[in-house]
Amino acid sequence: MTPYDSTFQSAYFIKSAEKLSQCPLDQGVEVAFAGRSNAGKSTALNTLTNQKKLARTSKTPGRTQLINCFGLNLDDRRLIDLPGYGFAKVPIEMKKVWQAHMQDYLMNRRSLAGVVLVMDIRHPLKEFDEMMLDWAKANGMKVHVLLTKSDKLKRGPAKSTMLSIQRELKQQNIDGSVQTFSALNGDGVDDLRIKLAEWLVLDNQDEIPVSPNA
Length: 214
Ligand SMILES: Nc1nc2c(ncn2[C@@H]2O[C@H](COP(=O)(O)OP(=O)(O)OP(=O)(O)O)[C@@H](O)[C@H]2O)c(=O)[nH]1
Hints:
By secondary structure, the protein is α/β, with parallel strands linked by helices. It has a single domain (about 5-205), classed as P-loop containing nucleotide triphosphate hydrolases (Rossmann fold, 3-Layer(aba) Sandwich). It has six helices and seven strands, in the order αββαββαβαβαβα. It has a seven-stranded mixed β-sheet, sandwiched between helices. Strand 3 (about 65-70) and strand 4 (about 75-80) form a beta hairpin. It is globular, with a radius of gyration of 16 Å. The two termini are about 30 Å apart. Bound molecules: guanosine-5'-triphosphate. Guanosine-5'-triphosphate (GTP) binds next to helix 2. Its cofactor is Mg(2+). This is Probable GTP-binding protein EngB. One of its GO terms (biological process) is division septum assembly.
């Protein structure tokens, strides 16, 4: 349990956007989930919000093709599910379009406070992940690496994967953190809520509109 559980449980679907211009008004604070296709982004969002169907999950990789936007019961606080990267069965031209839209979002979204980079703990730091880390470094963006499906590894190997990624972030001078996560056994759910609350609420207190009656 964390003090923020009900905030995340309040998550509701706002809209699916094909591109940045269709996203909700660019004000307040939002956190985006990015990752390779099938890494477990949608499942992580559903677990975080304790809702079975908030973000559609699928065993078919690449289902999350749009920028899916979710609101919370705090003014102008949002969670964003970005298109999964690298779905093999999609034509190359379509992939390029998605990538362009995603890049546009990442480069130009002013309310974006941090990116949760979702990786399957058994396949960390693939080309896309390295690209995202390079981008985060170049743009001073905060990154939280979520190593999903930790239930698939024993505790020792899971911990050592986490530590090696922590080292990599440090070596690359990236403003980032790492944790393990499992939708299956609940590993790291509280840690993720605390991290996101830090980005969405605690770091951005002055972004919260003050009620005239307060
Ligand atoms: N064992 C285990 N399986 C998981 C976990 N999280 C996700 N999965 C499985 O991994 C597969 C992909 O999960 P999704 O959440 O749909 O992945 P995604 O990253 O949203 O995929 P795209 O829609 O392709 O972007 C599904 O079969 C999930 O059930 C986890 O913590 N543990």
